[in-house]
Amino acid sequence: MCPRLPRILAAVASLIAVPLAAPPAHADGAGGLGGSVVAPPVVNSSLLDLASAEAPPPPMDRSWLYADDARTPGVMRSIAFSRTTFTASDAAARPFASDLAHPGAVLEAGAEVGLARGLSLQAVGLNDSLGLIASPQSGMMTGLRFAPFGEGPTRLVASGGYMNELGGAHGAWGRLSVARDVGRARFATSVYGEHVFSPTRDSLDVMVTAGVNYQVAGPVRLGAEYVAQDIEEAFDDGSEGGIRHFVGPTVGLDLLHHSLAITAGPAAGLSYGSPTALGRAAVAMSF
After folding, report:
1. Quick one: 148 and 249 in the same domain?
2. Closest CA to 159 of 142, 138, 137, 176
3. Cβ atoms within 10 Å, residue 64
4. pTM to 2 decimals?
5. Does residue 141 share a domain with residue 17?
6. Do 99 and 189 belong to one domain?
7. Is residue 280 situated within a structural domain?
8. Measured distance CA(76)–CA(114) in Å, rounded
9. Tens digits of residue pLDDT in 101-145
10. CA 31 – CA 155 distance, rounded (Å)
11. Spatial separation of the C-alpha atoms in residues 245 and 229, rounded to whole Å
């Protein structure tokens, strides 16, 4: 007989026994074959510990300026973030703040916390205290985010909730976001819709974002993002003056083992009524 055969058979038996293992029984003289222990308890204990260990939290994916992050934080983990957007003209600005906007800056500060696997709660506060208007205003957005398929190369998140624009109007919003990683490249797209409870607004405002970025070296990612808002007005006259869209490059840093993300970039309008120029910077930290 091969001298290694008993070791091989014992190892195979241990591996097979792991998923079939019952709760440990108390030792007695009649157990096993003549009272002897067949499976090495150290091997079984290690394998059971690995099988029952909690899955590590997903890495943070905050490399986007306008596209939505298609991940949720782990259970009871949180992400804090802040964003600043500067718009050079008074075009609609819902992609980066729930507002019909005005020239100047809008500040955002928010947090997201994981409630259960694939489910999180997010809240964002908005303020235009750096804007070029006499009376600064505040607003907010809050809602739930749900990732039905968990972590993987292709990810999907559905989200929705309540909003209060800087101008004071209230409404409801929803978003569907999809992202895919292909090697060092990362792709994302999202469709966002909102209904503002105001007779002077469209019954439904629709926005689409799309982006791609690539890890060029170490923590540095370069990319580009495209935003098209008020898509519904491409087919009919609406309250916001027609479809607007813009595009711009982005540069991001992925630091501290995916727990700190810094992203920034300018953008330029592509159609009449779009912002002639705008810029955005964002920072996010996971805990």
Report:
1. yes
2. 176
3. 24
4. 0.75
5. no
6. yes
7. yes
8. 5
9. 556 788 889 999 999 999 999 999 988 776 555 677 788 899 999
10. 49
11. 6
Tokens of 260: 């700190």
Shared domain check, 21 and 103: no
Helix (H) or strand (E) holding 50: helix 41-52
* pLDDT tens digits, one per residue of 43-75: 444 444 443 345 555 667 788 998 988 999 999
What confidence tens digit (pLDDT) does each residue in 166-205 have? Answer: 777 899 999 999 999 999 999 999 999 989 898 887 788 8
Q: Total structural domains in the chain?
A: 2
Q: Give CA separation, 205 vs 95, 99, 242, 256, in Å.
A: 11, 12, 11, 38
Q: Which of 285, 221, 279 is nearest to 63 (CA)?
A: 221
Residue 270 and residue 217 share a domain: yes
Helix (H, G, I), strand (E, B) or coil at 23: coil
* Pair 266, 279: CB distance under 8 Å: yes
Nearest to 251 by CA among 235, 262, 242, 260: 262
Calculate the CA 178 to chain-centre distance: 10
Does 144 share its domain with 267? yes
Residue 148: strand pairing partners: none
Closest CA to 94 of 195, 11, 213: 195
Q: Which residue has the tokens 């908005």?
A: 126
